[in-house]
Amino acid sequence: MAQTVILSATARDKTGKGAARQARFEKKVPAVVYGHGRSTQPVMVDALALEKALTGIEPESTLIDLTVDGKKSRALIREIQRHPLRPDIIHVDFYEIKADEKVTLKVPVHLVGTADGVRNAGGVLDQVTREVEIEVLPEHIPDRVELDVSALKIGDSLHVSALTIANAVILTGADLTIATVVPPRAEEVAAPAAEAATEIAEPELIRKVREGEEGEEGAEGAAPAAEGKAAPKAEEKPKGKKEE
User: What DSSP string describes 125-157?
Assistant: First the structure.
């Protein structure tokens, strides 16, 4: 059966963004209560008490015993708004219900057991659908629905038609897949690295000649050439001819 949470709230006279900011500044969460043709009533709830009450439960399938300024009612949480950057709750919608009237809500589906295809063939269990919509009296609201997947082999699936919920009508389509076992995912094998052909050649170190070094290097480079080359011979005069 569904869990029940007790909360207290106070009516708020002012509405709008400014009033909501002021309520949150005072560690209160702005909220509304509606349902059964009643006009929407703005209220506010203590932020710390709300966070504590919602810890470890399924909010959509949890009954709320809500007291507003001494007046008690039973409600469901229809929507929780959180801050886009922080986990803080910034607004809650409470829907008042009656004990003798059926309500429509969503309940989570929990898979139990280890699928045969996972245990014996290395497959992967994939849960496609995580909640289903039902119609039920408040006293019969389940906190969750369990589905045994132990018999699933690779390629097998279970659908909404496999669910059984006592005292409730399942509104979600019977053919909708809840869970399936898929083949094991192939592991990518890295190609062996090439040996010598793929080695990266070490780049040649090139040093820029600084100003003032050029002459010294030129002199050093020219010296061996001067030593290894014979000096040019003086022009020889023809023999036997007198100078004029």
Answer: EEE---EEEEEE-GGG--S-EEEE-TTPPTT-E
- Give me the pLDDT at residue 217, please: 45
Q: Is 1.10.8.420 the CATH number for 4-97?
A: no
The segments of the chain whose pLDDT lies below 50 read 196-197, 214-232, 234-235, 238, 240-244
Amino acid at 141: I
Q: CA 151 to CA 149: how far, in whole Å? A: 6
Residue with tokens 């592991």: 187
b/e code 191-205 from CB counts within 10 Å (16+ = b): eeeeeeeeeeeeeee
pTM of the model: 0.68
Q: What is the pLDDT of residue 193?
A: 54
Residues of the chain with CATH 2.170.120.20: 105-182
Structure-block tokens of residue 49 = 């008490």
- Which of these CATH numbers, 3.40.190.10, 2.170.120.20, 3.40.605.10, 3.90.1170.50, describes 105-182? 2.170.120.20
Angle among Cα 160, 165, 168 to the nearest 5 degrees reads 105
| C-alpha atoms less than 13 angstroms from C-alpha of 174 in its C-beta half-sphere | 4
The closest alpha carbon to 71, from 150, 10, 3, belongs to 10
